[in-house]
Write a structure and sequence with these properties.
Structural class: alpha+beta
Protein name: Cytochrome P450
Shape: globular
Oligomer: single chain
Distance between the termini: 59 Å
Largest sheet: 6 strands, mixed
Keywords: Heme, Iron, Metal-binding, Monooxygenase, Oxidoreductase
Family: Belongs to the cytochrome P450 family.
Organism: Streptomyces evansiae
Helix content: 40-55%
Length: 544
């Protein structure tokens, strides 16, 4: 049931964290009089890092990082379709898990606003600009934080400029970016699609489309991913990006061109400089995170089919179907903070009080058994997923994201048509953050081949004919089957990734002084020199 509730006589549910003390320093809670959800023993939860004040589960605890969907399943079993949860620094909120309940919250801006200034804990000072999620909830003059006529004014320029994207230019940018990223890997016969392709190509293409290709570098990429993770460095990453975007807007104001910033400034909506710079950030970061995750997840689906193709045979998905399947199974954003109750409302049997924060659970809603009784069944031609949101604040660039992913997968499969998973799909690892879940690596092997000439760009990667198979027929003699990789090698690869990131930050610090995006926890390790670990342990092991 999802209905407004009169404020008189309304009381919070037992154990609800959203109505706990707003004091910044909370004593260890007394669980003696709080009924435990079925199957939970309060005595065992005192020192559990996944459980916080009010006995709510943390969305940034070890369980969430290890198995995000498993956490959602646990919450659904304990609370139903809406659950009390804790954000970083144990800030209470509600997480909507049900498909119908998510759609209800999205469809009723008169009950749930996107204006973070309505959040009671922001009003009373419990959270503020220094919170790790401040870039997500602090009010900004962008369409995602306003309603009504102001929302229409700010959203219209985005929709118009994203809709008129030249698909020929989009294909050119994808092909050029693919050449830049993959040509040096041709002779190796191995690559990690996550790091070498999926996390880089979308940003290259998006910056090219927006006329800001000169901003692309590793630091920009790292800040873009860090901003939405809810880490202690998220605010510094946000400020680094905003400095760049403000400079872009100033340049566009002085010398207008065909770039995205100039188009927004010239639009009849009359956006000012701050509005344009904030929209550059929200559009670019949201589009990048969405596309990078979607590209990796769709490619994983296609590769896993190859691993079991003897069983699926002619029933393999095509690229379009793989993208839609990924939007259901692994939405690019698994959850999103951004709704605040304007009055007392009952949702999913729980009373959400005026001023409470509400998170939309896209990933949890997509596996709601009321809409997907059989999770293993294909979802062909079914777009009722929540991946791009719903209602007036649905993603304005979803068409662009789908097109970019389809072109990127076309090109990738044209480069390496014999590509296969280098490890069994059961060994693929995931990393969960507060708002998203992504593949740590997606290692593939292929027959080594000569590099391509730059003149060949545009002569390959054409769309496959309708109904054509994506991969060549099985060839047992030359097939590249996955191999079981020792756990020690996978752990070394993770450590090497941390080593590479630390090395990049240190090199940047030598040029610019102390970098604001450095994590405090890395300072001690980096002060002692390079973190230990080989550069590419997984790649070196697979070569053998």
């Amino acid at each position: 049931m999802t209905t407004p509730v009169p404020p008189e006589g309304a009381v919070p549910p037992p154990g609800c964290p959203a109505h706990a003390s707003a004091a910044p320093a909370r004593p260890r809670p007394d669980y003696s009089g709080v009924p435990a959800p079925e199957g939970r023993d309060p005595a065992t939860e005192v020192d559990n890092p996944n459980i916080g004040p009010g006995r709510a589960r943390r969305l940034n605890g070890p369980d969430a990082e290890r198995d995000q969907q498993g956490l959602y399943d646990t919450l659904r079993l304990e609370y139903g379709e809406v659950a009390p949860v804790l954000l970083p620094r144990d800030v209470p909120a509600w997480l909507v898990l049900g498909h119908e309940e998510n759609r209800f919250v999205c469809a009723h801006p008169e009950l749930f606003t996107t204006d973070g200034r309505e959040w009671r804990l922001l009003q009373d000072g419990t959270v503020g600009p220094d919170h790790p999620m401040a870039p997500i909830f602090m009010w900004q003059p962008v369409c995602a934080f306003v309603e009504g006529e102001e929302h229409e004014r700010l959203r219209e320029p985005l929709e118009e400029n994203l809709r008129v994207t030249d698909l020929r230019e989009l294909r050119r940018l994808v092909q050029t970016g693919t050449y830049t990223l993959l040509n040096d890997l041709c002779e190796e016969g191995f690559c990690d699609l996550t790091e070498d392709y999926c996390e880089r190509l979308p940003m290259i293409v998006l910056l090219g489309l927006f006329g800001m290709s000169h901003l692309y570098d590793d630091r920009f990429l790292e800040a873009a991913r860090d901003l939405i993770k809810g880490t202690e460095t998220a605010n510094a990453s946000n400020e680094h990006l905003m400095r760049l975007f403000r400079a872009e807007v100033e340049r566009a104001r002085v010398e207008p061109g065909d770039d995205f910033a100039s188009q927004l400034l010239a639009h009849r909506a009359g956006m000012n400089a701050r509005e344009v710079s904030e929209h550059l950030r929200i559009v670019l970061i949201a589009a990048y995170e969405t596309t990078a995750n979607l590209l990796a997840n769709a490619m994983r689906i296609l590769l896993v089919q190859m691993e079991v193709r003897g069983r699926v045979g002619a029933g393999r998905l095509n690229i379009y179907e793989a993208i839609e399947q990924a939007l259901w199974d692994e939405p690019p954003f698994s959850a999103m903070l951004g709704r605040y109750a304007l009055q007392d409302v009952e949702v999913g049997g729980w009373l959400i009080r005026k001023g409470d924060a509400v998170m939309l659970g896209y990933a949890a809603g997509n596996v709601d058994t009321r809409v997907r009784p059989e999770l293993d069944a294909p979802v062909r031609d079914n777009r009722s997923h929540l991946a791009f949101g719903r209602g007036p604040h649905a993603c304005p660039g979803q068409y662009l994201g789908r097109q970019l992913c389809q072109l990127a997968l076309d090109d990738l499969l044209a480069w390496f048509p014999d590509m296969r998973l280098a490890v069994p799909s059961s060994q693929l690892r995931w990393s969960g953050s507060l708002l998203s879940r992504h593949l740590v690596e997606l290692p593939v092997r292929f027959e080594p081949r000569s590099q391509r000439d730059e003149e060949s760009i545009g002569t390959f990667g054409v769309p496959l004919p309708k109904g054509a198979g994506i991969f060549p027929p099985p060839d047992e003699e030359h097939d590249l089957m996955p191999v079981e990789v020792p756990d020690a090698v996978l752990e070394a690869e993770r450590e090497a990734g941390e080593w590479r990131a630390a090395k990049k930050r240190r090199e940047q610090a030598e040029q610019d002084g102390p970098a604001p995006v450095d994590a405090a926890g890395d300072a001690g390790a980096e002060a002692e020199g390079l973190l230990p670990g080989p550069r590419r342990p997984l790649r070196d092991w697979l070569r053998r």
